[in-house]
Design goal:
heterodimer; A: about 260 residues; alpha/beta; four-stranded antiparallel sheet; 10 helices; 10 strands; about 40% helix; B: about 290 residues; mainly alpha; two-stranded antiparallel sheet; 12 helices; disordered C terminus
Chain lengths: ~260, ~290
Amino acid sequence: MPIWEARGTEEEMMLEVQNLMVFFENALALNDFEMEVREGQVVGVIGSNSAGKTTLMNTLSGLIIDMRIKEKRRGGQRITVYGKIVYRGEDITETRPTERVRKGIVLCRERHPIFPESDVLQNLRMAGYLRKKAEIRETIAYVFDLFPALIPLKSRKAGFMSGGEQQMLAVGMALVARPQLLLLDEPLLGLSPMMQQILVEAITHLKARSGITVVISEQFARPVLPMIDFGYIIENGMLTLTGTGPELMDNPEVKAAYFGV
Amino acid sequence: MLLGTLIYGFVNSAILALLAMGFNLTFGISGVANFAYGAVYIFSGFSAWIFLNTLGFPYVVAVLAAILLAGLMGLAIYFGVILRIKGMPLSEVMATFGLGLAIMELFRYFDFVGFRYTLPVFFDGSLSIGDVYIDYQRIIIGLIAVGLTAALYLFTNHTRTGLALRAIAQDERSALTFGIDPDLVGGLSMAIGCALAAIAAVVILPLGTIAVEGGYEVLINALAVCIVGGLGSTVGILVASVLIGYSQTFTANYLEPHWMMLVSLIAIAIVLVVKPSGLFSHQKELEERI
């Protein structure tokens, strides 16, 4: 089964986030955030609601630049971003989101961001907007291979599917955009434990098969910590803890806050 | 009499569908209610006339140039005006309506008034069905309305750009995460909408004269069809065109022709009272928009 190759060499630095600060008007959403992601890693960002996970994902994917432009146009909230994001040696702090997708940074937004009025196949094709026809066909086959449950739903309107099915589709759509760096924003939110398991397995499988790099944000530490190479725990926009998956799992503070032990 | 009414009712429905198509497409994709729509329609009529008579272009070239010019005008309106106020429906309506008013009244100011402003028909002649005579131009209107509907369906469901348009229509921010640029697509939707207005103009205007007042009438008819059918819904547009089209023709033939204009206004009133979102749409913002 052919799948696109991630270009970078294993262990090389892929993404560096330096002194990142994000303000919405005067509210500080991210404060002095630092992060490193190496090629081929799965990196977790764990935090509770309003910790700044989504803001981080939007900043990494560049969505925040678009939000800033839109707010400015209509004289709304002032959004300010300080700091630096370096992707494969290139400063992308001010790069527009469409350009970042071209470079291989693809975000899967929280709460299954699918196009409800189009069917599954159309959804997948929409996601391949920037890719060649042959590539789209190839990746769609791969997505169906990864999530066989989607095959019988091919011509179902996406809005009529269950939350779990929508989330599988959302991850599939992000894959059709052929990411080098896949950003998953709370992919397990609102899913049953069984559905969570299917997604976790798919992500692990994905990593082994294509070598793409994944940054995953979650509130639930339990399903995520075992699969990550490195994790960042944030609270109120601040980094509180970092470490490898096993290190974090053994940490008493993490146990208390996220495992209820 | 009845057969004639049925045939002419169908042509009238086709005319309404052609008029509403562009307005509906722009709104459905970018959420912008383009109130300069009637002005673009009249602008295209006059520009085709100028290309044909003042500049002496061949007929086909003049028509294509007018359609292209309308598309460019749509882009200019989007990037020059709408982009600055995007997301504020009331401002969008006021700005486009003001712009449309200015365009139409400028034509009046420069004395584009009179019976000499007509476009030629595509083919001369007529056909008889039973004892009903119908000219080729009206048949062509029907064919083009059906053809354009099919073409638009294929375009939005089976091409990369068409799918991008639909993606933006459903969720702008998610579309952006796949590299689809909302500004680009919004501009495109405006350009296609205006080009469709121009197509309607060059096909329909040969039936009468190009008059500034026609612009207001076109806007009201397009609005009526879109409100009755439900803004943004293609099926709704077709059903509403047939409903209003036949009601207008029956009113004209069995009551009085000058009551025809009332039909669309009454249709708007009834639908806004009974089902404000339109027959085939779930657009909740409609009450706020119009």
